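Objective 1.3, modelling of assemblies. Example input:
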Amino acid sequence: MPPQQRTIASGELIPAIGYIRVSMLMEEQISPEIQRAAITDWARRNGRRIVRWIEDLDATGRNFRRKIMKAIEGIESGDAREIIVWKFNRFGRNRTGNAVNLGRVNLAGGELQSATEDVDARTAVGRLTRGMLMEIASFESDRIGEQWAETHAYRVASGLPANGRPRFGYVLRGRQPDPLHAHRTLRAPDDGPERYEPDPITGPVLADLYRRYIAGTGGQKLAAYLNQTGLRTTRGNHWSDVAIRGMLDRGFGAGLLRIHDPNCECNQPANCSNMTLIKGAHQPVISEEEWQAYRRRRLRVAATPPRARASIYPLAASLRCGHCGSRMTPCAEGPEPAVRYLCSGYLRKRTCLARSARRSAIEAIVVRELAQWADDIAAEAPVANEPSQATIQPERAKLEAEVAAADAAMDALTLKMAKGIIPEDSYIRARDVLLTERAVAAAALEEDDRPAPLQRHEYVPVIRTVVEEWLTLRPEARREMVADLLPEILIFRESRRSAWVTLRAAWGEERTFPI
Ligand SMILES: [Zn+2]
Ligand SMILES: [Zn+2]
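Predicted structure (tokens):
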């Protein structure tokens, strides 16, 4: 692009673009106001006139290219002669970016100025100095990145979340509020090692949220309930459906940490969605069984259309047309609501026939046959080759014990160093050994992607509760329990006379009955 600079008469102010950028690195965050003041001041003292401000306040740096290009285009089009930055390190995000951007500015006859670094770019020494300042900035940025990765790995190996943020339901010990940044914390060595302890008030509330969700209460109702209690998020905001589900999904209350999958080969862990759950160092507020039940309901809800989720009809979550796989919609008959279930494929798109069944008939079959099924399972002798919980649990228990032992040893070790019984270098060596042991055991405990199913005989008490309490259970609790037992209830109708229902049970069996 040819330089389009017009000659500037002596005494005339040189037109310049003020470029402000907030770095994504915490350590370099200088407020836009400070940058603007310094640039304005420098321009006044040095005979520059700011014709335009370009602010790049996107801390993620994602729009960086677009914004800096506007400034460079301003030089190329002749609107301005110079770009003024607060420091040279604001100009590029890395070495290549710096060099390319500066090259374009110089090629167009423009110049880059720093408001706080006294460099005369007209001389060879000045240009060398500027190059070195940019190089130092790149080096600093690399170093901070490395430190961050190191700290991150250390924290994960210690069973701590990647950042020391407060967590709902827990008291964060060993850290104190950062006086310079709201919502951030700093280490507080006086308070012992960093750790999360269940909060006596919000801990039980967190457990209660999981239990209510398992029993069929949706995210919106949970948010309303929590907001009513006056409890706020760790950032002091009101709760929303999304915030509640996000918090419960992260599984912190189940003693878990959500981390970037260590096997992932991407190099952008901060933006990667490939996450995995590992066991943390903190105490869970709910049991393993409750966590699995929570995950089962989450998966089920995700696969259910919104209208069926809130349904008060006990079979709503499981019912499907056996011919086309569509959901079955409750339909009125005269003034009476929801008398029949009708294939929604027929109802909405006519992609199926008018397959239907009386709601009362289906519900009666489900209750009667579930009772029979429970009796049949209970009457059978335990099958020898069925892997029982008793054989699965010891392995898990052993790993959990290993993690707990490593944690206890760490605590004892930290105490010894604090009391001056052992020197710091022995502490560090012993600590690294312990952390490695802990990481190995914790990784082996890593969550399976699918929630663990119960064993066949473990469903018997659940079935009996549903059957016996059929009329007294809250509708949504009954719906969730049925869905947990019978993930699919398929309705088939060939003609007016010929119809049947297939019950597919969570334990992998199915039974079919005429309607
Ligand atoms: Zn990744
Ligand atoms: Zn159908």
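DSSP finds 15 helices and 17 strands in the chain.
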